[in-house]
Amino acid sequence: MRKAFITYIRPLLEYNSVVWNPHKKEYISLIENVQRRFTKRIPSLHLLSYSERLAMLNLEPLELRRLRFDLVMYYKILHGLMSIDVSSHFTYYCPLISSRSGSPKLVKPDKGNNNLMYSFFNRAADCWNNLPHTVRVCDSLSKFKRCLNKTDLSDYLTFI
C-alpha cells in the first residue's frame, strides 16, 4: 500500500508544486489530507497519529516536500543552472563584510498584493536566507540536496 502511495498518488500531489503552491491554510490542509487519509487506510497504522504514521512510513509532510522543491529551484536559478535572468526576479542585499553573515541575502518586497508576496520568487526567500551559508553555496546540485535533506525546515511549515 505504501508503494502505491509513493508511486501513484504522491507524484500527482507534488506535480508542478513550484508553479502552484498554496499559501492559504485551508488549501494546504486539503492537499495534506490526501496523504493523511491514505496513510490512515494502512491497517497496521490506522490507530497512530498522522505524525507517527509519517515516521513509521519514513515520509515527510507534503508541505515540507513542496518547500524543499522550492529551495532546490532557488538553488538552480541562483547558481545559473536554469536560463532565468536572476536580476529580474531576485533582489540581493549584501551585508557589510564585517557582519557575521557576509553572504548575500534575498530581499522580499516590503509591500505588495498577495499574488506578489506568495509568488515563487518570494515565498521561500526567508527560508533560503536562513539556510546555513555552507548549504547555500554548495558546489553541486546533488550536494545541495543532500545538505538540504539534513537541514531542519520545520520552522517554516505553516500547517501540520
Topology:
Elements: H1 2-14, H2 25-40, H3 50-57, H4 62-78, H5 86-89, E1 91-93, E2 105-107, H6 114-117, H7 120-123, H8 125-130, H9 133-136, H10 141-150
Antiparallel strand pairs: 1-2
Helix pairs in contact: 1-2, 4-10
Q: Which features would summarize this protein structure in a list?
A:
160 residues; 2 strands; 10 helices; mainly alpha
Q: Order of strands side by side in the largest beta sheet?
A: 1-2
Terminal CA distance: 23 Å
Mean pLDDT: 82
Q: Helical percent range?
A: 40-55%
What are the low-pLDDT stretches, counting only 5+ consecutive residues below 50? Answer: none
Number of domains: 2
The tally of strands reads: 2
| Strand coverage percent | under 5%
Q: How would you characterize this protein structure?
A:
The chain has 160 residues and is mainly alpha-helical. It folds into two domains: 52 residues, no CATH class; 91 residues, no CATH class. It is built from ten helices and two strands. Helix 4 packs antiparallel against helix 10. The model has no long low-confidence stretch (mean pLDDT 82).
